[in-house]
Amino acid sequence: MGKIYYKGKSYTQLILSLSSKNSVRDLLGLLLSIKTPLKYPYDVQWEFVVMELLTNSIIASIKNNVDNPIILFLDVDKTFFTTIVSDGAGGFDFKTLPYDIFAKDISNIDVFDKLFEEYRAREGYARFGLGLYAAKKFADYFDIFLIDKKGNKTISFSEGMINGTKVIIRKRIK
Questions:
Q1: What is the per-residue pLDDT across 90-138, written as a single tens digit (0 to 9) for each?
Q2: With contact defined as beta carbons under 8 Å apart, do 81 and 154 qualify?
Q3: Angstrom distance (rounded) from CA 131 to CA 110
Q4: What are the structural domains, with CATH classification, of the chain?
Q5: What is the DSSP code (8-state) at residue 38?
Q6: Are the C-beta atoms of residues 157 and 146 closer than 8 Å to each other?
Q7: Which neighbouring-strand residues pair with 68?
Q8: How far is CA 153 from CA 5, 149, 165, 167, 168, in A?
Q9: Of 47, 145, 172, 174, which residue is the least packed, with the fewest Cβ within 10 Å?
Q10: Is the pTM of this model over 0.90?
């Protein structure tokens, strides 16, 4: 079974807490200090994907003026390396993405498509719609859902009724 290495110690589970006050530099430092059980090129791809997911959470927290914890949960077993990113940033409407995040097959998604360009323009070119797409493309298992104010799992967005978003990715250890 693989291990996760962080600050000179080995773990099978690791939970780290971040906030909207963390900078991109903080995220890079954090991700570069974690050694996953993934081998090249998957280790580098994981860093990119998690950077995108954490950045999404920080941006959403700032945009929605909340400072709830952003949790990075890592777990390794004999088969999978699991990463969960969860936040309390208010969630978002999945229908605003330039693709169907719940589609089983995303191989036909063209990131240069008109829908992506419209999304980027609508977001003032501050968001590109690639973080969740990259996570789904990378993962052997991918799930995303919202957590409502009562703690229930949902995929239906309702302004003011959602506490945050949770993304789960699992990568098979090769």
A1: 999 999 888 899 999 988 888 888 887 888 788 787 666 788 999 999 9
A2: no
A3: 14
A4: 4-172 (3.30.565.10)
A5: P
A6: yes
A7: none
A8: 31, 10, 9, 12, 13
A9: 174
A10: yes
